[in-house]
Amino acid sequence: MRYRLFGRTGLRVSELVLGTMRLRDASEYRRILDVFADAGGNFLDTAASYGTSEELLGEVMTDRDRFVIGTKYTPTRDAGDPNASGNHRKNLVRSLEQSLRRLRTDYIDVYWVHVWDRYTPIEETLRALDDVVRSGKVLHIGISDAPAWVVAQANTLAQLRDRTPFAGLQVPYNLLWRDAERELLPMAEAFGMSVTAWGPLGQGILSGRSGQRKDPAEYTERQRTAAAAVDKVAAELGVPAAHIALAWTRHRSPAILPIVGVSSAAQLAENLGAVDLTLPEEAVAALEAAAPFEVGFPRDFIEGCDTAPVIYGDTVSRFDPRGYAVRA
Description:
This protein is of the alpha/beta class. α5 (148-161) links the parallel β7 and β8. The protein is globular. The protein folds into two domains: 3-293, NADP-dependent oxidoreductase domain (TIM Barrel), CATH 3.20.20.100; 299-328, no CATH class. The protein has twelve helices and ten strands. The strands form two sheets. Strands 3-4-5-6-7-8-9-10 form an eight-stranded parallel beta barrel, surrounded by five helices. It has a two-stranded antiparallel sheet with strand order 1-2.
């Protein structure tokens, strides 16, 4: 497996992220970690709210420094306590201490805000995260499931006030769910952020595994068409359907690191083969034709203006924008 820098940091992370949300059996967890590490994988994704995921990882991990551990906070630790949830300083500090105990470690490589808390000022969250980075308990920070304008505001504040910026963004992304392309991916690329993509197999719809898929009768027409297209391209290229779905997410942007959630070492070993697959352009076109997506306003309007003489004058047809850093 190859490695990429995590955002604008020097941290090297594997090009696939191991998702641990579904892991419940300690012995299988150990086998999965061994398979992942043997393939060169080092980036692990967990969360305080993923049941016993943190505790199990702390139990089975034998070489803590070998791995880059990402965990998250925001969801409630105590449903009866109004301050046991959210992105304010108190919940951040108490959640971090809980995760450190569960993971049996004294630092977290990447500490993620799990979801935007609309009731906590982003300035408070950012300052509290900067404090735990300065304390050494957290090395880098990321944010999951938040609007692009919130992340952009936070990172701009970080630049202005010399605080730790978000180096990573975590969002759902797959052939069926491409909403991130409207604002989130261009924003992340502009700020140099890594994007860990959850749900790259579309909740099993794009996996090619009938046992992981919903009852096909419950599919929408778009889901059926997309799944059939993935299966067809997989058959043509002689690879599992999951490889096609994972390769599609990876080809969209070098910033994207798919999160591969598995329940067995055998399933992980099969999915790891996706890192060696580069989709032909005709395959990409066939997949995207099967699951149409419109970026919408304002991006499609602005892109239409790119070649409009009424906007840029009569020389617009002779303008070469390559190398223009702001172009998304």
